[in-house]
Amino acid sequence: xxxxxxxxxxxxxxxxxxxxxxxxxxxxxxxxxxxxxxxxxxxxxxxxxxxxxxxxxxxxxxxxxxxxxxxxxxxxxxxxxxxxxxxxxxxxxxxxxxxxxxxxxxxxxxxxxxxxxxxxxxxxxxxxxxxxxxxxxxxxxxxxxxxxxxxxxxxxxxxxxxxxxxxxxxxxxxxxxxxxxxxxxxxxxxxxxxxxxxxxxxxxxxxxxxxxxxxxxxxxxxxxxxxxxxxxxxxxxxxxxxxxxxxxxxxxxxxxxxxxxxxxxxxxxxxxxxxxxxxxxxxxxxxxxxxxxxxxxxxxxxxxxxxxxxxxxxxxxxxxxxxxxxxxxxxxxxxxxxxxxxxxxxxxxxxxxxxxxxxxxxxxxxxxxxxxxxxxxxxxxxxxxxxxxxxxxxxxxxxxxxxxxxxxxxxxxxxxxxxxxxxxxxxxxxxxxxxxxxxxxxxxxxxxxxxxxxxxxxxxxxxxxxxxxxxxxxxxxxxxxxxxxxxxxxxxxxxxxxxxxxxxxxxxxxxxxxxxxxxxxxxxxxxxxxxxxxxxxxxxxxxxxxxxxxxxxxxxxxxxxxxxxxxxxxxxxxxxxxxxxxxxxxxxxxxxxxxxxxxxxxxxxxxxxxxxxxxxxxxxxxxxxxxxxxxxxxxxxxxxxxxxxxxxxxxxxxxxxxxxxxxxxxxxxxxxxxxxxxxxxxxxxxxxxxxxxxxxxxxxxxxxxxxxxxxxxxxxxxxxxxxxxxxxxxxxxxxxxxxxxxxxxxxxxxxxxxxxxxxxxxxxxxxxxxxxxxxx
Amino acid sequence: xxxxxxxxxxxxxxxxxxxxxxxxxxxxxxxxxxxxxxxxxxxxxxxxxxxxxxxxxxxxxxxxxxxxxxxxxxxxxxxxxxxxxxxxxxxxxxxxxxxxxxxxxxxxxxxxxxxxxxxxxxxxxxxxxxxxxxxxxxxxxxxxxxxxxxxxxxxxxxxxxxxxxxxxxxxxxxxxxxxxxxxxxxxxxxxxxxxxxxxxxxxxxxxxxxxxxxxxxxxxxxxxxxxxxxxxxxxxxxxxxxxxxxxxxxxxxxxxxxxxxxxxxxxxxxxxxxxxxxxxxxxxxxxxxxxxxxxxxxxxxxxxxxxxxxxxxxxxxxxxxxxxxxxxxxxxxxxxxxxxxxxxxxxxxxxxxxxxxxxxxxxxxxxxxxxxxxxxxxxxxxxxxxxxxxxxxxxxxxxxxxxxxxxxxxxxxxxxxxxxxxxxxxxxxxxxxxxxxxxxxxxxxxxxxxxxxxxxxxxxxxxxxxxxxxxxxxxxxxxxxxxxxxxxxxxxxxxxxxxxxxxxxxxxxxxxxxxxxxxxxxxxxxxxxxxxxxxxxxxxxxxxxxxxxxxxxxxxxxxxxxxxxxxxxxxxxxxxxxxxxxxxxxxxxxxxxxxxxxxxxxxxxxxxxxxxxxxxxxxxxxxxxxxxxxxxxxxxxxxxxxxxxxxxxxxxxxxxxxxxxxxxxxxxxxxxxxxxxxxxxxxxxxxxxxxxxxxxxxxxxxxxxxxxxxxxxxxxxxxxxxxxxxxxxxxxxxxxxxxxxxxxxxxxxxxxxxxxxxxxxxxxxxxxxxxxxxxx
Lengths: 776, 776
Ligand SMILES: Nc1nc2c(ncn2[C@@H]2O[C@H](COP(=O)(O)OP(=O)(O)O)[C@@H](O)[C@H]2O)c(=O)[nH]1
Ligand SMILES: Nc1nc2c(ncn2[C@@H]2O[C@H](COP(=O)(O)OP(=O)(O)O)[C@@H](O)[C@H]2O)c(=O)[nH]1
Ligand SMILES: [Mg+2]
Ligand SMILES: [Mg+2]
Known about the structure:
The first copy, chain A, has 776 residues and is an alpha/beta fold.
């Protein structure tokens, strides 16, 4: 009888029971088994008599099906039994080895249905840990594919190769095919040929891992075939067949002995236990055995196919039916919903029969694709709507009553209207399930409308600034040129006052506070401040250009000359002057020159009346990279300062003064010439009068020889002095004499000599002062 | 015995044989069968004794397996036989109906292996066309899932529902389960319960189409169970069981009669033939039955899983191992190849065991993903390389010897070098299989390098134009202002000549032909022409601004005045004039005024010496939309013409002439005043001399009372006339008297009177001419 009841090595939850080691120890007691043990397992369809066979053959006590009740699964998991008693034809009472028998749960049970996971792992485990694997099959199963577990064996062979194919222990397994209910009509040789051929075919078709490509079935397995008679209808023969089978498990040395050394794992028993547990772990972790059921695999394949077809039909219908409706929200949405519903319905009709989770997963994916496709049209519609609403807004803003409605108000109203209509359209799409996420669209729309409003605002601002510029620039130019062409000492104070007031006047409509402006565009305080600053920059640039273009050397000389002549030619009341004496001319010259040069300094350096250099309060220069903006060189090689206040260089100042002096000297010369011609011109009738009045005196002189002699002597002396240019010494002598005796000479002589002397001194003094000024 | 041999209705290639109609006619001859016929088919695993049963039961002659040879498939396709002879327990020799029997190819044959396509279609067809479907199964198959064709039945039930579920003919099928080799240990009731429960479970799990959700198994099928004893080991009982089965096919009216009216299709025989053919077409076309084999489905699932894992591992390793190598082509490529090979090897090891085409397909997809991921790094590398090479090119271009190497040459050399290194790098990647298509990268690279060269070219061009501008603008300004400040009648000819020559001088380095320039940047002829045109536009704008800013009213008045004074104040030799008479002044005045006004016309309208208006040869104005560029309104409301040649308006011309006249009149007045003072001034010593010389005459007059009396009378008369302003009439009288007696008066008197008269006339004439000119 059996030693002990069988234990469950691996339960239905695929847990390895470590009590096996304890069981082994109970079975073998204190005996040293060493390597003298064997492991046998069984594999086959459910209720194919596996347990019955093992019990009859090895006197084990595995549960078997009670056929009188019904056909159903009995063995669950993998059970382990120990035996030393094998049913044989003759009783051999010698030292029998310990045999450990694994009864494996039957494959293809209707209880597990499509879930083949445990079957594969159990079969794999049986092959891995056994020396002999009994493959149990009904005679009638031979020739079937699924029914004879050939598909299962193929998978098991493949995984076995990848997991254990390269093992170094040259472990081989005996596959013992036991053919049940073999009635004998078909010879066993024919059946074994069929099975062998099938196995070899499977092996050829296997996907073998690297290094096992050339391997053969027989590198890993030996095949044996045994037939057993019908247990119920041929009971005696069945018993006899089983005993004959039993002989091959105990008859060492004989040809048919099954436990050949090459099948043994060569592990001590406790080593085998660890090995078995390790095998189960590896098998459990192997993902190649983690396959979805046939149902799920088919469902994935079919739902994918159906989904693609439905989408294809949707797309083919889409364009032609949507094209004419692109502008109409109502008909567009209804058509979109219709097309989408049709597509999903078509999918549902065909795909709903497949596994629900797979069907729903693919439906979600299809829904996403449909929405993605639809979103293109929705985006187009929303963009068209946006364009239309935007045109409305632009028209409304441009045609508003500018007196009663501000730009900001009309833009805000238009924006509000756009947002309302846009959101309504989007809600329509969303309510109908055509739009999933509207955050992205809303965000893009908001960015778009902000961008467009910014453009509109920029255009309005540009127009306003353009108008300001169009007035400000010429006005500034005119005012500055007018002030500079008639300058005073405080011309720059005037220019600055006018500069500020001109700016103020041109943007007075936008002033909110002192130095705070709102350009009525809806900009922030800082943006308005920046625009104000830009306007000031423009104004300063205009001032700079105007000043530096106007105040050239020629212009400044002209200004100085005008100023000089105003004072020199006209008296305080504005009447033209008539010169009587040179002293008048010299005095007027000095005053006029001083009056002109008063403004020369302000025309060459822009300073206020407090002698403070004028510096722009905003940056004017465009930053030219790598260039010093303080100094630049013109095309004549002259270096200039770019500072606003610096109008003339020292060299240019010299140039101006030279030209000015030259011109006013000419004026003075003209004036002095007018005196000379006034002074020495004696009308012709005077000579007549003198002749008439002096006739009697003249006659008296002629009659008197003394007078004649004196006249001749004086004439001759006069002639000689003049001829030989001796007036200088004569003048000196006369002057000396005059200096000594002038107090006694009459007013006439003194007056005559002094007047001539003043003219000469004036000329010399002018030359001398000119040299003196140059030296300074 | 059997009437005729069976025919093949549907062959192994799934072709429907239309000879069936002919066969029917042969079987029934000229008899009118009407609806008195029945159709039976059989379904079950291969070699399960289906054909044997049909032959025994209906005396047909279907081929059966010869068990003594080997177990293998015999029936291929679907065969049709006709019988009227049913094997029954008692011989009933009455009018038997015609029975058409379909022998269907067995399912799960190892010959077809995993290909279940025909099995499904055959089973579906059998259900569709039969009244009774015999489901043949071994007793031992009960409890198995695949082994008992339950999976197959499930698929068939599903497709049957979708294809024929909504048929209006209320067609029902009797499923007659014949359990073979029923040894009787398990009661038939138990077996039928097991099968029924299994079928009901399958039906519940079915995915039913719309409209069939609430349907029951029994809406479409009736179930019957029959057990047959072991044919070989219980031969007599088997025969008896078959006869009992046969009774149920012929015993009308009995409870167990199988051919109930609700199973009949109610079609005449030829109608049934068309129906059968139509059914087969529908079944053939149904895609739900077109499933890949389990092998392929598993392969798809597993290779996807393996591929994703391999890719995941590749990506996790990728970043940290690539990051330090991004700059080195050699080590980068070797590491990329290594990582890619590792990934593909890992995939190959696990996935190569699965169906080859699926494995290769997924491998290609994985390869594409790997390359896509790698291409990111390659793009980064190539972009970095591009940046580095580009910096080299920029350095080389900027530091070239500008005397010996042109911009175009150095750019071309640099570009060639970049392309060479870039292509070498790309070839390296391509040769190692890391890059599939390099057209896109090459195209993007070419676009990039063209864009960068364009930027470099633009910068170089901008620099060149900047230098041209920096010289051209001030030079033009100076020249124009110089010419305009000292204008001649042909000033505009001079300005135009100088304008063209200044432009020419500044771009002479780039001239190729007359009016053709190459700016040595590598631009096309049209691009060079455009740049030349832009330079001319700039020059014209400068000319326009300079002219219109300079030629203001004040400046033109100043120019005219200078020109007047040059002629009026200085004689032909350049000496200052000293006026002797008013006639001289008037003559000089006329000449000088005419000389000044010569240039007034050219200063207000820019025309050449041929009196042709100067029009710019390039468009200067920036097009301000919606604005007429011919006329603009300044800030004083005055309308201006924007045409270049129009310098002064009519109003401004009047203004200039007024100011000019006022100024030159002052000058003339000064000059005339200088004459007056010259004419009438008598030095004081003359009076002394006159007194001295005329003392004796004076005394003589005093002593003579007549002279005294005359003197008093003349003095009194003189006083009265002066007091009452009667010089006019006195002058008239004197003139009249002189006119009558002047021939007798001495030169002195005539000279005195005439000179005084000329001065007065000069004054009156000036006023009169002034009024006259104003009226003109
Ligand atoms: N026809 C037949 N039935 C058998 C044979 N061996 C066992 N059975 C019966 O088949 C049923 C199932 O046997 P069992 O050993 O539990 O099958 P297991 O599920 O493969 O272990 C039991 O009712 C046995 O009596 C046999 O060789 N031939
Ligand atoms: N054990 C057994 N064998 C049978 C039975 N009926 C037929 N066979 C044998 O099974 C083999 C196959 O029979 P066949 O009718 O060709 O099977 P089919 O492929 O289903 O048509 C033949 O050798 C028959 O002799 C039966 O009821 N029991
Ligand atoms: Mg069992
Ligand atoms: Mg057959």
